[in-house]
Amino acid sequence: MKRVVVAGGGLAGITAALDCAGAGAHVTLVEVRRRLGGAAYSFERDGLDMDNGQHVFLRCCSAYRGLLERLGSSSLVALQPRLEIPVHSPGHGVHRLRRSGLPAPAQLAGALLSYPYLGPRGRLGAVRAALALGRVDPGDPANDTIAFGEWLERHGQDQEAVAALWDLIALPTMNVPAARASLGLAAFVFQTGLLSSASAGDIGFHVGTLQAILGEPARRELELAGVDVRLGWRAERLELLDGGGYRLEGRGSAGPERVEAQAAVVALPHDRAGALVEGLLGANAGRPAALASSPIINVHIVYDRRVLDEPFAAGVGTPVQYVFDRTAAAGAPPGRQYLAISLSGAAAEMELTVPKLEDRYLAAMRELLPRSRTATVEGFFVTREHAATFLAAPGSAALRPPARTALRGLALAGAWTDTGWPATLEGAVLSGHRAAAVALGDLGLEPGAEPVREGSLEAVAP
Q: I want to staple 235 with a disulfide (CB 3.0 to 4.6 A). Which of 7, 162, 254, 373 is the partner?
């Protein structure tokens, strides 16, 4: 039997391991953490089940949605029947940015032309800029050398328009403000999610915890597929064996261990992946490690009453970017409401202490949500992901390697690889499929049929 070793138990590694096992390979998956899921995980705090970060996906994210069905988790996510973003702004109440039933790109015209946080000229300018963005080639390397903010300025979008509109999409999808993003990646995001079809950008979000949706089901499915899952196992060295194949050396709970296989999939974060394979790939291995990182902060607040009616909302004219109601998922006591504020591209906020973040964001919530002014805060804390994603800045595309390496049987996976997507759930799953295809092809194995469970995602499709 052909053997494959997968280093990394995030979405990319989980996907690659399931694909390889489905094709008949004997797979060993090692993960340094005591859980699966990588950067998407849950924890318990003060009796509540909480996620480290708030992840959303789009209807067009077919690879991620397929993984949810494969894991039997689709009942724990919700997909909007039609794109609708409640946008709150201090002193202005809430405006619902929603698409119409018209075909793309006309489905967004009405939403932009009635958007209250821009003046009449700004709205027309935004429509023209959106149409022009649809003509940008995301695959042209030249467009990766240009900042999206620079392009927006050339197309008549001032700082007000960027903050009120363009950052609503850029920050949660690319984890960087529009001003600092790669034009190529921005064009891909907007074209794929908003301009390719009317329903592509409908938003999906997690109703349960990430552990219940991803970590636990992944462990179950991997074991059912016959994958040898080793948690608490740090990959330290990858060697090429005489006559072909690989030896992965590391440290498990019992001390030093090694795994030998004919093929290897490295699905670690980009800095660790570069270090692991540099001895085999030489100078080219430094390219993943050269990618910069971008942080994400989550501010968690528990109120003694409900202060937000929507499952999630965006903020304009406020430090609050997006806020999610996680009350039910966390198992909060009756009458309480647990909200999580997600701050993408949060380099400046990363430098602030918890008391300063508390002062800033409790005040911002009082301005944004009037009912919070009379509510009692029963809990406040902060989670920080210093290197949550790679930095989707100009020049990043040239640093993202493909799944295939120069060595037969060695493949790379992770949202940082060249999937075309920014660092998203979709990109991570796509990378796992591509890495598995490389490994299986080099082993002479045909991909197996994916065991997809019956899901409920399409039940709310228009």
A: 7
d(CA 341, CA 377): 14
Extract the runs of DSSP E, i.e. beta strands, from 92-177. Answer: 93-98
C-alpha 233/C-alpha 29 separation (Å) is 9
Residue 246 β-bridge partners = 240, 261
**Cα gap 41→24, rounded to integer Å:** 29
Which pLDDT band, with edges at 50, 70 and 90, does 454 fall under? very low
DSSP assignments along 389-404, one per residue: EE---TT-GGG---SB
- For the cut 70, the answer to whether the pLDDT of residue 462 exceeds it is no
Strand partners, 324: 312, 340
pLDDT averaged over the chain?
A: 93
Report pLDDT digits (tens) over 334-350.
Answer: 999 999 999 999 999 99
Give residue 45's region: left, alpha or beta (phi > 0; psi -120 to 50).
beta
The model's pLDDT over 430-442, given as tens digits with 9 standing for 90+, comes to: 999 999 999 999 9
Q: How far is CA 400 from CA 57, 116, 418, 419, in A?
A: 22, 39, 5, 9
Please give the DSSP secondary-structure letter assigned to residue 411. Answer: E
Contacts of 183 (CB under 8 A, 6+ apart): 136, 143, 144, 146, 147, 148, 150, 151, 394
pLDDT exceeds 90 at position 116: yes
What secondary structure does DSSP assign to 48-96, as a single string?
EEEESS--EEETT-HHHHHHHHHHT-GGGEEE-SS-EEEEEETTTEEEE
Residue 35 reports pLDDT greater than 50: yes
Q: What are phi and psi of 41, to 5 degrees?
A: -145, 170
Q: Which distant-in-sequence residues (6+ apart) come within 8 Å of 265 by Cβ?
A: 4, 5, 6, 7, 8, 13, 16, 17, 20, 411, 412, 413, 432, 435, 436, 439
Write out pLDDT tens, residues 395-438: 999 999 999 999 999 999 999 999 999 999 999 999 999 999 99
Report how far residue 27's alpha carbon sits from residue 18's, in angstroms, rounded to the nearest whole number.
9
